[in-house]
Amino acid sequence: MMDGRNERTPASKLLIAVMVAVALAVPIFMVWFIVSDRWNQAEQASQSITAGWGGPQAMTGPVLVVPYRATATETVVEAGRSVTRSRDVMRELTLAPETVDISTDVKPERRKRSIYEAVVYDARTSGRARFAFPPDLARTGVELGQMDLSRAELRFGLSDPRGLGANPRVSAGGSPLRLQPGGGSSGGRGFFAWTDATGLTARPLTVVFTFDFRGNAALSLAPQAGDTRWLVRSTWRHPSFGGEFIPTARTIGNHGFDASYRVGNLALGRSLVTTGDAGVPTGIERVAPPSSRTPMPAPAAEVTAAGAGPIQTAQISLIQPVDLYSQVNRAAKYGFLFIGFTFLALLMFDVIGGVRVSAVEYLLMGAALVLFFVLLLAFAEVIGFTPAYLLASAAIAGLNTAYAAAVLRSWRRAAYIGALLVGLYAVLYILLSLEAYSLLIGSLLLFAALAGVMFATRSIDWGARRDASEAA
């Protein structure tokens, strides 16, 4: 018979369980670091897969840029006197189309390297734009006599021109144009063409264009016309619509998706005519996409206009239906709940059932629970999240059930531990699937557990010692 003085009080048993649970916070944080590291490796692998293919693409244009002559004055100090001088400078007038209709067909493709995967696409864009001088052109301070319409440029912007196809075709007024690289003669990204726009003073100019390009992950358009219509079709079944404009109509099904946009320049807050110094490119600047570790889809590119800063875009992202790294990361955040519920069950057997559980046994079962998340990550990278979840949860639930049978000296008691773990893993999977209701479900689960513990321990004297034989 054990001396009753050596038997721990229920309060001391609770304290031991809490201390072991707190100690297991260290390996749980290490799991988060492992997930983060693998996430970064997957990101780098995805970038290497898409290297040379083309990045997230953003389109602007077409716009018609006309050089014009203006007079600039400057005041300088000479011999102690202020002298005002005038000089002729060349500036650019940028004319956005009155209307533009654009159609884009996107053909996605999954590309894999080892266990990593990236989504790339081929896209064909075709459209028609109509240019005309507004009736109130004089309000801009530029007259037709100042313009050199014979040296006009028709500019198209593309954030990553490496993905541009070999044979873009552009015609103005029915005449094909010879295309040049760059967003314009003054620089930028995309392509442009010199065109004689002298006929624009008498009648509108119609531009027809078709070009192919490649990209990955996302596609966006920066509307600039008085009335922009953009129709996008793709066989990808998991689009995400972002940016400042959402589709006016969209359909998503097993065939893919169709989305149509319509944006007016009043919504853009921009005039169809802008002026600026020559040499300031109007187009887009390519930037590195943000980390894919964010839960929201990454923007395609940052779109800028001369003198206007960032402008609004309509964006479509081809998202992966399941981001296994974000799923594993979210699952690991519930690790404390797994440890807490399992330790709580062991504590009830210790305090109420009279089966003594040592700190080492708490620690070993807790370590197995932490190992679940490592197994989940390792398997998910190879066989996918759902099969990995089933395999890892079955392995850990079986291991802890078998060990609990030895600790609790009863398979019947161990069956309660196994049933608890199976229930916890099932609830966690539901929480991961129903992100919007995860807080509600988790709160109700904690409430039920607390109520059950309070009911089961309502008659326990937490400060009393009990002899082992009496417990038996």
From TrEMBL:
Residues making up the signal peptide according to the UniProt record: none
GO CC field: plasma membrane
InterPro entries reported in the protein's UniProt record: Uncharacterised_IM_CreD
Pfam families, alphabetized: CreD (PF06123)
Positions of the UniProt region annotated as Disordered: 165-184
Keywords from the UniProt entry: Membrane, Transmembrane, Transmembrane helix
TM spans (from-to): 12-35, 334-355, 362-383, 389-408, 415-432, 438-456
Protein name according to UniProt: Inner membrane protein CreD
Lineage: Bacteria, Pseudomonadati, Pseudomonadota, Alphaproteobacteria, Sphingomonadales
